[in-house]
């Protein structure tokens, strides 16, 4: 269990401490506490299933932000072989918030792109807390075009609160860089697979997320705005982020139901940080299965499939309006997503 604890994790940790205490006592006193330990172990597993099986949307957001949660490079080390990171956008500089490189997965060549946060304060400063600048998105696009040239599938790992909103990023064309990625990704003639592994915030996420198949880890979230930002705008009170989270419908189950994502990838009970290897293997199975399916499609079919996927997201209503001359005309209006 991580040193960092969320409120709902504490009852489980208390039981783990009791179990550890009994084991230590049994070792020193030579008294058999096996039945008591087994009873507590059973109670702990039952409690974990109860807690993590009924998490609220806000609690899932907290798990998505857990500081011990695996990041892109953690998964790359487990899933990929022969990873070679490439740097720079060939225009301004390199952006450590977005890592890009060449790799193989089960000896199949791929291009890997993903947001990367830091573990320490200095690492987070260096990687800008996983919030990319324009050069990060331009670096990602450079690698995507390389993937297209050499016919390599693209795998992206999304984990960012959003693109960096600072003045310097805006001066260097943050909006243009993301918009260009959206346009170019929609036309790529190679398979693109995206996995939201933690936070999926706004344009910062979609800037590398226009994929043929989009999956989410069970306790990740994907949203046009952060819960705090939504609460500040709608309720004029950032402390109402819990209510905003429920209203936004940003969890994996909600997004699968609404057709925004294609699959939910299971996490160990307790979250991805409890067992990074198990989580990585679940991700790897999804990638292999999806790439095998997409490999059967032609270049044109891949681009058309990706375009159609994003065009059909949302709900549309048809309204009939009568004019003053009693003629009817039809207008299509887009309703908010349910």
Describe the structure in your own words.
By secondary structure, the chain is of the alpha/beta class. The protein folds into 2 domains: 7-54; 62-311, 2-enoyl-CoA Hydratase, Chain A, domain 1. 46% of the residues lie in helices and 20% in strands. It has 14 helices and 10 strands. The protein has helices at residues 10-29, 34-52, 57-64, 72-79, 121-126, 134-149, 167-171, 174-186, 202-206, 227-234, 241-248, 252-257, 276-294, 299-311, and strands spanning 81-86, 98-105, 108-115, 154-160, 192-201, 213-217, 221-223, 263-265, 315-322, 328-335. The strands form 2 sheets. Strands 1, 2, 3, 4, 5, 6, 7 and 8 form an 8-stranded mixed beta sheet that branches. A two-stranded antiparallel sheet has the order 9-10.
Characteristics of this structure?
alpha/beta, 2-enoyl-CoA Hydratase, Chain A, domain 1, 46% helix, 338 residues, two-stranded antiparallel sheet, eight-stranded mixed β-sheet, 2 domains
């Amino acid at each position: 269990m991580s040193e960092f604890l969320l409120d709902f994790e504490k009852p489980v940790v208390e039981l783990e401490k009791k179990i550890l205490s009994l084991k230590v006592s049994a070792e020193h006193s030579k008294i058999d506490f096996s039945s008591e330990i087994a009873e507590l172990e059973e109670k702990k597993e039952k409690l974990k299933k109860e807690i993590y099986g009924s998490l609220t949307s806000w609690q899932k957001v907290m798990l998505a932000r857990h500081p011990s949660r695996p990041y892109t490079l953690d998964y790359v080390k487990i899933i990929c072989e022969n990873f070679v990171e490439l740097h720079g956008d060939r225009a301004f500089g390199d952006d450590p918030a977005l890592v890009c490189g060449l790799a193989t997965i089960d000896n199949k060549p791929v291009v890997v792109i993903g947001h990367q946060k830091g573990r320490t304060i200095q690492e987070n400063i260096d990687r800008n807390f996983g919030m990319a600048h324009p050069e990060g998105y331009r670096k990602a696009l450079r690698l995507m075009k390389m993937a297209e040239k050499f016919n390599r599938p693209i795998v992206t790992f999304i984990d960012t609160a959003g693109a960096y909103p600072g003045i310097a990023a805006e001066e260097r064309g943050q909006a243009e860089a993301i918009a260009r990625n959206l346009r170019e990704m929609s036309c790529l003639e190679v398979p693109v697979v995206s996995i939201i592994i933690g936070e999926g915030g706004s344009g910062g996420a979609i800037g590398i997320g226009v994929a043929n198949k989009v999956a989410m880890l069970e306790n990740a979230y994907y949203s046009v705005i952060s819960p705090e930002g939504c609460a500040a705008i709608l309720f004029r009170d950032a402390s109402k982020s819990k209510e905003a989270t429920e209203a936004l419908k940003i969890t994996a189950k909600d997004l699968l139901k609404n057709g925004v994502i294609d699959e939910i990838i299971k996490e160990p009970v307790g979250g991805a940080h409890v067992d990074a290897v198990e989580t990585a293997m679940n991700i790897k199975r999804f990638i292999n299965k999806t790439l095998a399916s997409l490999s059967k499609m032609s270049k044109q079919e891949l681009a058309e499939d990706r375009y159609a996927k994003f065009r059909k997201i949302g709900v549309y209503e048809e309204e009939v309006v009568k004019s003053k001359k009693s003629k009817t005309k039809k207008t299509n209006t887009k309703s908010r997503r349910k």
